[in-house]
Amino acid sequence: MVDGPQGGAGTSAYGVTPSGAGEPAAQGTLFPDSILTDPHGVTDQLLGYRGPAACQIAGITYRQLDYWARTNLVVPSIRGASGSGSQRLYSFKDILVLKVVKRLLDTGVSLQNIRVAVEHLRRRGVGDLARITLFSDGTTVYECTSPEEVVDLLQGGQGVFGIAVSGAMKEIAGSIRQFPPERADGGHVATAPEDELTKRRRTRRIS
């Protein structure tokens, strides 16, 4: 990466407009094809999770979720709440961003700087996100993509709190299986074999 305005070599700072924000992002998937695709070939572009499920997975309140959606901080990419009775549907990546936002808020980063960080992260490909570690000094958010960048940042005294995005991905991937996804077109979602096996094990434990 290009040197950031306030970080060390290869580090981008999100407290201001980050360098490289306009770089094209590589496309990818956050789930294996076996999870994202049903027998009819429908992919993750139609599969999402309702607001209450997204809250539990990301560890936030529904009030936060609703406020962030209404202020366009984190909006559901699968389906928005348009019309009476419609339900927002959040993708895996949306929920990942929700989790990162929550952790940044917990460190005292302002919503204004978090908004800049979110806009930058959304431009990144999934492969790039998995390699990113975010650091914050409570004011600015810094992005590191290698151990050397982390060392440079810490030696400069700029990083106090770190978020490994890959770690957040793994946390979400583990907990999200407890919640059934929905298709934006209202179609049937096939149950993955491993999910059915989990249900059987849970039934045996209860009985």
What would you note in describing this structure?
This protein is α+β, with helices and mostly antiparallel strands. The chain has a single domain, classed as Multidrug-efflux Transporter Regulator, Chain: A, Domain 2 (Orthogonal Bundle), CATH 1.10.1660.10. Helices cover 42% and strands 11% of the residues. The protein is built from 9 helices and 7 strands. The chain has helices at 33-36, 51-58, 62-70, 92-106, 111-122, 126-130, 147-155, 165-175, 193-206; strands spanning 12-13, 47-50, 89-90, 133-136, 141-144, 161-164, 182-183. The strands form 2 sheets. Strands 1-5-4-6 form a 4-stranded antiparallel β-sheet, sandwiched between helices. Strands 3-2-7 form a 3-stranded antiparallel β-sheet. A hairpin with a 4-residue loop joins strand 4 (133-136) and strand 5. Helix 4 crosses helix 8. The chain is globular, with a radius of gyration of 18 Å. The chain starts with 11 loop residues before the first strand and ends with a helix. Residues 1-9 and 16-43 have low confidence and may be disordered.
